[in-house]
Amino acid sequence: MKPNQSRIIIENVAPHLHDEDLYVKLTVGEPLEVEADILTDGHDTLNAHLKVKKKGARNWQEFPMQHLGEDRWKSCFVPESEGFYSFCIEGWVDGPLTWLHGTRRKLDDGQHPTSELLEGAAYLEEVAKAAKGAAKKKAQKWAAVLANLDAFD
Prior knowledge:
alpha+beta, 4-stranded antiparallel beta sheet, 3 helices
């Protein structure tokens, strides 16, 4: 489970299966469109993906979901071989995207996003601790940029 998943409600999933065998039988090359209402408390930004697994497979495939407006989300999967497939939807509060939207709102309103810049720098410092190589250097570089509040006056 990703952090912040416990705050997510997923309901009104379509297609909806009524029995306990949650496999969807599909035809090769014919898309399966899956929609759901995905919501959370507050105004945080959400993200979600459709997870699909063929019966007998070890791993799930993940497909990003698109926000259609209001609370509705949609994704599509096209099976590459015959068989039975199961699916589920995973949603989470997207912390970095929530931060970005909050920072943009402050800038659009003419406010100085001091606390947001420091929050972004702290987040990137944590990312840098877990990263390696070029990704670590990039995270460190951008953390330093965000922490330099004088550059944003």
